[in-house]
């Protein structure tokens, strides 16, 4: 894409020279990340290598439980849910839940990540409690949404199988030594999996948070981790131009500084649709910060937007082409789809239709992408393409790891802590206060004296 960058020019794009001039900054960021890793602060970088035991246990658990239950329900939110959805969409049959033959003997998967009363009830109403296993995922073990879902699910199960059997229908995925969920799991005799302390929610897809639902639906979790390990080696490269996480982390940073404050991710693949959703949280929560590392008020952060090609060409593309020059668009292009799917030839006498026949859908979706890219370039709109040879566990593991590393790089360049989320915590604390949780009276008072009341 350097050719296109040169074409777009310095005003609205980036030239190779601009990257070359700034690459020392990226290399310093890289150094800082590796130093933080050596101090045990970059837990996500350990995940490809240090999970042999847990992977064994996850696979055994899946083998043991897949025949006992028809439904596997994840209760979690944010980083405790989005990775599960992304893996499911990317790897399994698009109609996995609908058809038994699409599931190969594994249970249906539901990720219940909201507390909308209608959605919540509609799901439980249709499940047979005796054949349903819940995975409650919460690192803090106290998030109001997840714990409310748990309380409801617990009653749903207890009413059907009796108090004494509740524990068999729940798995807790949480912190080993803190929070209420671990306490409950011990009391109820639930199976437990742990989220390492040094891995934050949105970086946790490759911990049991994402791996258990993957294993329970037949996804090869070792391949996911192997893909991440493969990408980790690439991300350790200290030659700037050979390290895509450094190049891309710097591109995103420089684009932001040039006013491209909107960051669109647009896969041309249904399978990668929810990777864009997962990335949206990763990028927003990691980089949107009020203060820099020194505590100065900075209020920075690009706004991530998810789009889907070709669908959103007919929804968003007009804005991307002609609206404000405030976006950088990242396309994900799949080189080999699992299907080619020919477009049948017909209506040869209708020239405006006949031309389609004989081409294939995989050709069409990528042609749509190239056409959009060219049109954006003509309009001097900044864009880049990440090519994915094909979507499978190995490449998905690479993508997760790549974007996590890139986020760490851009966080360093923006001089913010990419691993905390004080804004989210503030919202959580107001909810606790308004709902009457002990210790949060001050938050309740604030609410009662506010305009939101
Ligand atoms: O990335 C994060 O830290 C957050 O999005 C959390 O994952 C989310 O708030 C859920 O938190 P918890 O797992 O503690 O319930």
Supply database-style keywords.
single chain; 453 residues; alpha/beta; four-stranded parallel sheet; 48% helix; globular; binds 5-phosphoarabinonic acid
Describe the structure.
This protein has 453 residues and is α/β, with parallel strands linked by helices. Helices cover 48% and strands 13% of the residues. The chain is built from 17 helices and eleven strands. Strands 2-1-3-4-5 form a five-stranded parallel β-sheet, with helices on both faces. Helix 7 (180-188) links the parallel strand 4 and strand 5. Helix 4 packs parallel to helix 8 (208-216) and helix 10 (244-257) crosses helix 15. The longest helix is centred in the first third of the chain and has 23 residues, at 16-38. The protein binds 5-phosphoarabinonic acid. 5-phosphoarabinonic acid binds at residues 77-80, 138-140, 143, 146, 200-202, 285, 421, 424.
Portion in strands:
5-15%
Number of helices: 17
Low-confidence runs: none
Overall form:
globular
Q: Helices and strands: which structural class?
A: alpha/beta
The total beta strand count reads 11
Fold topology:
Layout: H1 2-12, H2 16-38, H3 52-65, E1 71-75, H4 82-91, E2 108-112, H5 117-126, E3 132-138, H6 144-161, E4 170-174, H7 180-188, E5 191-194, H8 208-216, H9 221-235, H10 244-257, E6 262-267, H11 273-287, E7 289-291, E8 297-300, E9 303-306, H12 317-322, E10 327-334, H13 351-354, H14 361-378, E11 382-388, H15 393-414, H16 422-434, H17 441-448
Parallel strand pairs: 1-2, 1-3, 3-4, 4-5, 6-9, 6-10, 10-11
Antiparallel strand pairs: 7-8
The chain binds 5-phosphoarabinonic acid (PA5).
Coiled coil: 16-75
Enzyme class: isomerase
Catalytic activity: alpha-D-glucose 6-phosphate = beta-D-fructose 6-phosphate
């Amino acid at each position: 894409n350097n050719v296109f960058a040169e074409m777009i020019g310095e005003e609205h794009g980036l030239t190779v020279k601009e990257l070359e001039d700034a690459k020392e900054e990226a290399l310093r960021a890289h150094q800082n990340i590796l130093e933080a890793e050596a101090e045990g602060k970059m837990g996500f970088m350990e995940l490809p290598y240090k999970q042999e035991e847990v992977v064994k246990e996850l696979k055994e658990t899946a083998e043991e439980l897949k025949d006992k239950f028809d439904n596997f329900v994840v209760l979690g939110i944010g980083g405790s849910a989005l990775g599960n959805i992304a893996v499911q969409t990317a790897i399994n049959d698009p109609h996995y839940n609908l058809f038994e033959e699409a599931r190969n003997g594994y249970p249906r998967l539901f990720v219940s990540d909201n507390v909308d009363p209608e959605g919540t009830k509609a799901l439980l109403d249709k499940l047979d409690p005796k054949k349903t296993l819940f995975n409650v995922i919460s690192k803090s073990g106290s998030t109001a949404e997840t714990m409310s879902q748990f309380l409801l699910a617990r009653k749903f199960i207890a009413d059907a199988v009796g108090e004494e059997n509740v524990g068999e229908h729940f798995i807790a995925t949480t912190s080993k030594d803190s929070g209420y969920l671990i306490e409950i799991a011990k009391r109820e005799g639930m199976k437990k999996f742990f989220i390492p302390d040094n891995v934050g929610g949105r970086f946790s897809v490759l911990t049991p948070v994402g791996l258990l639902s993957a294993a329970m639906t037949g996804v090869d979790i070792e391949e996911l981790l192997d893909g991440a390990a493969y990408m980790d080696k690439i991300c350790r490269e200290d030659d700037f131009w050979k390290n895509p996480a450094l190049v891309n982390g710097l591109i995103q940073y420089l684009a932001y500084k040039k006013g491209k404050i909107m960051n669109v991710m647009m896969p041309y693949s249904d399978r990668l649709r929810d990777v864009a959703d997962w990335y949206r949280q990763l990028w927003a929560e990691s980089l949107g910060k009020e203060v820099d590392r020194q505590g100065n008020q900075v209020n920075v952060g690009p706004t991530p937007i998810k789009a889907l090609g070709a669908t959103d060409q007919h929804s968003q593309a007009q804005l991307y082409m002609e609206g404000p020059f405030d976006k950088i668009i990242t396309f994900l292009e799949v080189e080999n789809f699992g299907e080619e799917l020919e477009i049948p030839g017909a209506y040869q006498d209708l020239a405006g239709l006949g031309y389609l026949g004989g081409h294939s859908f995989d050709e069409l979706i990528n042609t749509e992408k190239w056409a959009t890219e060219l049109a954006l370039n003509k309009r001097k709109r900044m864009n880049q393409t990440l090519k994915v040879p094909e979507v499978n566990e190995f490449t998905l593991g690479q993508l997760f790891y790549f974007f996590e590393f890139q986020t760490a790089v851009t966080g360093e360049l923006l001089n913010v802590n990419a691993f905390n989320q004080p804004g989210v915590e503030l919202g959580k604390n107001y909810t606790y206060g308004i709902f009457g949780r002990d210790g949060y009276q001050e938050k309740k008072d604030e609410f009662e004296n506010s305009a939101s009341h």
